[in-house]
Design a protein that fits this description.
This is HicA. InterPro entries: HicA_mRNA_interferase. GO terms for molecular function: mRNA binding. About 40% of the residues lie in helices and about 20% in strands. By secondary structure, the protein is of the alpha+beta class. It has a single domain, classed as Double Stranded RNA Binding Domain (2-Layer Sandwich), CATH 3.30.160. Strands 1-2-3 form a three-stranded antiparallel beta sheet, covered by helices on one side. The longest helix is centred in the C-terminal third of the chain and has 13 residues.
Length: about 80
């Protein structure tokens, strides 16, 4: 993981919840962590990381991820033992 990915991971775990993280940066973080990202129907993607699968919705029309999704990502990564 490079410094950019570490910054994104820190942003995901920041309090208060950061609602201005770009979705493409979060997907890049997933891949840097070793995840497989698969396209699903509509705006959904499946992320497989440490043998755990999670479905996420890409935000649209704005490129930024809302606070609820950031919180969900933080809880999931924390449950997998991934922290900044």
């Amino acid at each position: 993981m490079n410094k950019r990915h570490q910054k994104i991971l820190s942003d995901v775990f920041a309090r208060p919840v950061n609602g201005s993280i770009k979705w493409k940066d979060i997907e890049s973080l997933f891949i840097a962590l070793g995840a497989e990202v698969h396209e699903r129907e509509g705006s959904r993607i499946a992320v497989l990381l440490k043998k755990q699968k999670k479905i996420f919705h890409r935000p649209h029309p704005k490129p930024t991820t809302d606070k609820g999704a950031v919180n969900s990502i933080r809880v999931w990564l924390d449950s997998l033992g991934i922290r900044p």
